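Annual report, structural modelling task.

Input specification for the zinc ion complex:
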Amino acid sequence: MNPKRKSMIFIIDTSAILSGKPINLDNAMMITTSSVYNELKPGGRDYQTLQFLIEKGLSINSPSQDSIEKIKIISSKTGDLNRLSEADMDILALALDINKADNKEAVILTDDYSIQNVAYTLNIKFESISQKGIAKRFIWSRRCLGCGKNFKENLKTCPICGSATKSIVSNRGNIRKKGRDDR
Ligand SMILES: [Zn+2]
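The model returned the following structure:
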């Protein structure tokens, strides 16, 4: 017997709409958050894209507070917290809510690397619209410009020598192999 197939639910974020690329998901369920909806000002081309998607069946929902809290905790661990807008966090939290159902699976459509990074960490599926997506998992950390020490914490000033720090990417690892090995 085949295991029951999960129905895919595509979560559309702001970057997917702003990409201007056609989002062709006939017969697929599409959802976005009210915060994404509110980010787009009426009248512009992006707002028209949004209206078009709503005509195609895009629904608008809000995530649970529990899931938002979880996203805040995880994204502070990966160093993405300061890179995520409230709308970004809502997108990720909505994916967590959807994945709680046994028969549904969320796929986030986004070009935002921080959303992709947190999604990867939480085992949430994502697809990139205009870019190829991140090939590596990355964790942000900070490096002191004075003594060169690295910190996992988001420290603006080095606690050892007092110099300023800058964001760096550390701890890379493969997310998925690209292409075929025989090419
Ligand atoms: Zn230092």
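The pocket of zinc ion is lined by residues 144, 146-147, 149, 158, 160-161, 163 (CB under 6 Å).
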